[in-house]
Amino acid sequence: MCEEIARLKNLYLFNGLSGEQLAEIAGLMLERKYARGRIIFMEGEPGEALYLLKSGRVKIFKQDEEGREHILHYINPGEVFAEVVLFDGGNYPACAEVVEEARIGLIRNADMDELLLKNPSIALALLKVMARRLRVSQRQIMDLALKDTTRRLASVLLELAHEHGTPVTKGLRIALPLTNQELASLIGTSRETVNRILGEFRRDGAVTVNRQDIIVNRERLKTWL
């Protein structure tokens, strides 16, 4: 139980709660293991639970009518996802797929609803965090609407370096097994366009691209924004 409380305390969604409140939430948590490539839920399925990634990595994405994938976000260990279904009881707004073997905690909506009805202060704290998350989503929408593909790719790489980067000699290494197609999905363009822009970034010294990773020189890359 203490380990679960410590995990919850470090989450943006729960870091404003007291130890007693965290203990109540921790008591609701179940745990499941997922293999790489496993779909956790699909867009449109009934939203049944909030998820906490304990280890591994998860990809959140949407599919258009032609089946093309548009990546929204990568979930790191220690982060929550599908939290939006806590409040509206609706369907999952996107798909979640395991990209690295994962251990995931989950809290069922029905159990959380019962807890929130008994403790409105927990509900208020969660709503404030959700409002901050909405601001991030609005910024992503504005980026797609107002920035050209070069600036969008630079912005996404800087964000990925901030969230997933580890320091190395040449900058920040993005510790994600990203393909150029996945980068294209993140910014709403084609793989060929990403190939061309990455080539420009490489020649400028803004990024170093290897088979397994991308190293970002933040100061050089910011000049492309």
If you had to describe this structure to a student in words, what would you say it looks like?
This protein is an alpha+beta fold. The chain has two domains: 1-137, Sandwich (Jelly Rolls); 145-223, Winged helix-like DNA-binding domain superfamily/Winged helix DNA-binding domain (Arc Repressor Mutant, subunit A). The chain contains nine helices and ten strands. It has helices at residues 2-9, 19-26, 85-88, 109-118, 120-146, 149-164, 180-187, 191-204, 218-222; strands spanning 30-34, 39-41, 49-63, 69-75, 80-81, 95-108, 165-168, 171-174, 207-209, 214-216. Strand 3 and strand 4 form a beta hairpin. Helix 7 (180-187) crosses helix 8. The longest helix is centred in the middle third of the chain and has 27 residues, at 120-146. The model has no long low-confidence stretch (mean pLDDT 85).
Residue windows where pLDDT falls under 50 for at least 5 positions: none
Q: Identify the CATH class of the largest domain.
A: Mainly Beta
Tell me what portion of residues adopts beta-strand conformation. Answer: 25-35%
If helices are DSSP runs of H or I spanning 4 or more residues, what is the number of helices?
9
Helix proportion range: 40-55%
Q: What is the N-to-C order of secondary-structure elements (H for helix, E for strand)?
A: HHEEEEEHEHHHEEHHEEH
Q: What composes the largest sheet?
A: 6 strands, antiparallel
Q: What is the count of β-strands?
A: 10
In the residues, how many domains can be counted? 2
CATH topology of the largest domain: Jelly Rolls
Shape: elongated
CATH homologous superfamily of the largest domain - what is it? Jelly Rolls
The CATH architecture name of the largest domain reads Sandwich
Give the termini separation. 45 Å
> Any idea what the radius of gyration is?
19 Å
Q: Indicate the structural class.
A: alpha+beta
What is the average per-residue confidence, as pLDDT, rounded to a whole number? 85
